[in-house]
Give the backbone structure.
Amino acid sequence: MKLFAAASAALCAIALAAASPASAQATGGAKLCASPQQMDGFKTCADVAKAKAEGAFTLYSTDPEQGQVKLLAAFNKLFPEIKTSYVRLQAGALYAKLLSERQAKSYLVDVIQISDMGMILDFQRKGGFRQYISPEMQFFPKEAKSQPEGFWTWGSVIMAGIAYNPNQVSAADAPKKWEDLLDPKWKDSINVKVSNSGLQHGVWYMLMPILGADYFKKFGEQKPRAFDSYVQQYGRLVDGQDKVIMGAQYSGYIEFKAKGAPLAFVFPETGVPAVPETYGIVDQAPHPNAAELFMDWFLSPVGQKALADALLLHSPRPDVPPPGGADTVPLSKMKLLTPADWNAFEKDRPAFAKEWNRIVGTGR
Amino acid sequence: MADASTGISRPRLNGQALTTLAVLLIVGFLVLLPMVFLVEESLNVGDPMAFPPVEFGIANYVAIFEEDLKTVWNTLIIAVMATVMAIFIGFTLAWILTRTNVPGREKLERLMELPYYMTPLVGALAWAVIAGPKSGFINQMWKAVGGTGDIADIYTHFGIAWVMALFEGTVAFVMISASMKSMDPALEESARVMGASKLRTMLTVTLPLVMPGVLGAMLFVFAEMLGSFAAALVLGIPGRIYVITTAIWDSTLSYPPDYGRASAMGLSLFVVMFFMLSFYRRMIRRGTFTTISGKAFRPRPMEMGRLAWVLFGVCALYVALAVVFPIAALLMTSLQRFATVLLDQAQWTLANYETALSLGPVRTALFNSIILGLGVATVGVVIMALLVWIIYRSQLRGRGAIEYLVMFPQAVPRLVFGLALLWAWLNIPIGIYGTLWLLALAYFTVMLPLGVRTLAGVVLQIDKSLEECARVCGASWAYQMRTVTLPLLKPGILAAWLLIFMACVRELGASAFLMGPNAKVIAPSIVSAFATSGTELTAAMALIQTFTVIVALVILFRVARGMTKELQ
């Protein structure tokens, strides 16, 4: 956790200063409630009786559907009176749907999760979040929370390394560093994610200054193929259609490995680029009390544990064990590379998308 | 549209005029409203998230020529290849099953329709397993018998077109069959009596007579292929082949979303469709296709002798390629812990079915899809039959324009039209956003071209004199519709109903943007499972969907048959 904090040490001041100017939400005056109520495994400031009376809770999220169902079922088990529902779309489409709905004053959602900090900061600037300070937020590192606190919070951290299939590639032959991927022997056998992926953008953004601008130019000569999701990336590795994943999502590796797929994961010593999935309560939420109750539960160790079980993602909370089995590497043992300035990261996106589309041969 | 009533002769300004006016107003509104938003957005050159747009220009259209020509070219090549294959397959199978005495006709016909019941993604996933490069089954077998390299690669232009033709081409088969069924066999018999061979009879008599059906199917299928998404998503991207729909998918998923570009690309296909439709109208105006006249006829299939078994073989081959092999491949995938085509490393499990069935929202989604299919098909087909009658039989001025109008939703890729529907209906202050009612309206709108094309092929075959006869004998318009026109349209109506039902159950593009948290349908869930949860779960969900839909249809047909018997 120390490394994690260190890697992103400088970010808070810059990121948050940039997020706030002239924003309606910069001056959010909410405070932590005086006497949070102790629930089963977490504390809440929500009015539990009102939340139950509201009887429903809706989440918009980018996470896989079956994971989503598991997470909401865990919450519903604690509060059977609160019926849960969700909408799942990819980040860009989900955010666009959300904005269109708000523009038409159609309020259907209570909490959103978006895996892209650019959209989160944009939504905060637009005054889309409602500030609510959860008693559980104090256990999150500073960079994982909005400034001021209570608008959004990181629910999990996703990191990207290198993966290969040990049945196709021996451990001795396998790449160990990011630079090893430039070896001509990997030509036509590497896959990556498409330019829409926030994680792939993270890989590009964080590695470029370390490895030099030339790195990705040479990487393009390897003719990598791009896919929407880690599922297709690992699937092609398993079937021998590709040999290596550049920027392999660790949670996907844990998932496939648990099913018995022949896979190996490499944490290059340079570090692994990482991006968060961020949660926040939406302004004008139709079930505000249920939304607060959900956030308190979700950010607590019980909720974070449910998330780890459902989606195999790492919690930003130091006191929550990593997902998967005993051999999963915890955050504290990783060298995470996280953008220090999320606004600069977001501004880099169009340039990245253009260059990445060229590298993966989208031909657009 | 306001002058709809004035175009109709005074004394009969009753049922006919009112119905015509109502149908036109509803359809015009449903189709034009989203189009307005779409055109506006395609001209948006400012902030893509600004709504309504503030800066206008044609930069989005210029960009297509500057940057997307390769994508447009890929799209056209694949659509042409797929249409040619689909029409060839559809015509051959329709002819075999309606005009010859091939053994097991009825059963075969039901089997032919099967591919259309499946979500389009299914065929692509299955064929990726069968004919993928390096490790697909065909290549594994090839290597097992000593071959080197790959003999099959589905990730090519031809591969994508092949999957589209097999799985989305069924619509051609159903449309062409409908018009063949309504054909008087006396014409074919005359040809045979005069000494023409069976093949010659088929090419010189059958084919020209069912031309409206074939052309209509071609028009529709070509549009469908231009807007086809699933096969290009699964098979195009690994082969680095982008088509307009996958490019649009990309531009709506990235942030900020490039809606202007997506709209412009969608609308550019409009031009292609406009020329296609003009060509179609010219073709059908040149000839007469009346085969149902006052004379009684009983469809009699041609005696094919031993050749019948060869024809049976042709049908069986199609069923194997489009139904048996894909389902077997999917079944295998759905029973694996992680999807793999290398069977020595596969681990078998039933867990995917357990997961799929335990997903409560997925169960509701499947139920919703079936309900929507039943509702939209039943109500829709009646309105569409009226529309077709207005376009081809009424004396209404400007009825040609209506034909263009109802083709609009097909001329723009469904994903883009789905966005347009979202913008349109979000901004109408009636509380149907996020409910199944909105999905029903959207489905009706996007199914208009399908229903109208299917029914038009049949209407053109009905001799006008039959209707005129009814009117001369004093029947009112409503009475004539009920006792003459609609009964004659029966094969077309049944085909249209079935096609619309199936198209609703597998609808993806419009649903993706219009689903609400409590109003979900099945196809987007399956696509999102493909994108996020793995092929094995996707395969299990797709098989459950296919199976449920078939069971629902079997029950429905049984009940319907029972009811008609009672009535008789």
In short: Chain B has a mean pLDDT of 83. The domain at 14-38+71-292+311-338+356-567 of chain B is CATH 1.10.3720.10 (MetI-like fold). Chain B has one domain: 14-38+71-292+311-338+356-567.
